[in-house]
Amino acid sequence: MSLRIVGFVQVHNNVQNGYLRRCLRSLSAITDQIVVYDDASTEDVWPLYEEFGCVVIPGRTNEFSKELFHKQELLIWALRYRPDWICWCDSDAALGKIFETRAGTENILSQADREGAHLIMLHNLNLWRSHWWYRTDEKFNDLWHGVAWKNTGELHYKPVAKLHQQQFPYFFHDTQKPAISVRFDKPEGQLLHFGFAREEEVARKYFTYRAAGQTGWALDRLVDERKLELKPASSSWYPSWLLEGIGEPEAAPLPQLTPEVMAQVESFEAWKDLRVPAG
Predict the structure, then answer these.
(1) How far apart are CA 267 and CA 246, in angstroms?
(2) How confident is the model over 180-199, as pLDDT tens digits?
(3) pTM of the complete model
(4) Computed from CA positions of residues 59, 57, 66, 268, in that sequence, does the dihedral angle turn out positive or negative?
């Protein structure tokens, strides 16, 4: 018997940069339904939602710090489709090569079922100012995301309005009952994160987190390239449809961002104005 899989995404824009299309295309290949919480996008997201048949909860105002409240609302909708598994993806990411097909994905989920796992963790590959290089310094290569969630019948969030909280739900109401997680450590199964793949996106994130109250090392590392370390990504990690759109491998980006300079810039819009050549 085939598994029922529901895709789970929270979205704010990512249309103009092409990332949302990648995310939805990636999920549509392996899911029966995609549910979306749209956090008051200002870009034209609706044609993509219609193209991929998404069920959408439209947010009235952008509430970046309340993402767990939105995820709880979205989880209620996702569970209405009675999934065996829920597959989460950031709207600026896509699943790696091994999750390119439904059959391959079901094999992985079925294996997790046999092992009694409730959560599958994928390594987050932070592509840096390029589609072909990923960052390894400042803990950028240390993150694993809980991407696939087994429907235990008790999935729920405990929302708080803070940044950088656990993004996957709790699996049981009994806090003494452990949830079993497994790390899928094949490089072809990474979560491909494009949110830093362009300098503009790096700057956008920096100013977004700064406006939300983040300070110190957690903020500064986003724009601190003084000790930048990059490694090349392999084309074997990418689904074939993605390779068609990202071009040939290129030289590694050179360090240029510093927190001291960025701290003097008032806003993302002001940063963009500074990047426009005079003339």
Answers:
(1) 29
(2) 999 999 999 999 999 999 99
(3) 0.95
(4) negative
